[in-house]
Here is the input.
Amino acid sequence: MSIKLYPDIISEGDLSPDMVLSEVDEICNAISEACKGFGTNEEALLKAMGSQTPEQRCKVHIRYKEIFGKELKDVIKSEAGKRPFGQALQFLAVDPIMAECMMIDKACGGVGTSELILSTIICGRANEDMELLKKKYFVMNSKDLGRVLDSELGGGLETLVLNCLQASQEVYDESVYTEDLRKEQIAQLHNDGLAKLGTNEAGLFKTLCATPPEALAKLNIEYALAHGLTLSKALETELGGKTRDAALFLMGMKLKPYEEVAKLINRACKGFGTAEILLITTLIRYQPIMKDVSLAHVELYSKTISDRIKSETRGDFESLLLEIIKTGEEL
Here is the structure.
């Protein structure tokens, strides 16, 4: 089963802020105090916002409006602006599913589309999370998410992303995912990819999206035994550009999700400058599994995520990201 990122209280529909109300009120009051008067106490604001768990973010933005009569995200936008620090705070000012809808709009806004951000939000998701995301996006924007992405993307990447949107991953059943079925899948995948000129991307992506992680792990190994390279390596060889990156991310999120997120963080920090929005969206989205991602990051790169952030960012932005990481590692 793919990792579920949204807190259970979202799927359960229990978003009233009555649970541990004093704790929620304390956070709301701390945010309000940080925004009072001339200027903003950014140190206090980042502490109050960055130290919230995903569950608390589901409650705080509702309770804040009840107490102060204002949308928290609007207050944050006014106080912190559009710089990376302010953008991160705006994503933290709503619940995780609303934050992802805002991230999608951010990736689709302006000149060009950030395909990497879109593909990492859409690919490799649990079915339940995907269905919730589509519904929330329509409620927030009065637009179908599939139509929006169809207008933003093209080629193989569009085919893959729209496949992922179908939330078609099957439940693993050993009596269904037998050795005979794997042999059939290996033959079909080979025919869809390396065995001929050109790639049947629709067929490849349909299989990758529908196959549960437990079955895909076995399929990956047996494909290597049959053809001398893993399925992941075959995709890397056959596909190109952003489509290849998205397909490999999908595979990674199904087979080794913590390592894959660690690699994404590394990618956001790699090269000349830091891809700040990618870094922000990754750290916020994967906060629920940050403890395991941090361990994978140390294993891969011999340094903690916090040490990487300290070397790549500065000031309040650095402090906020470190607070997000710390909170996630303590979950």
Q: What stands out?
A: The chain has 21 helices and no strands. Residues 91 and 99 are 5 Å apart (CA to CA). The mean pLDDT is 92.
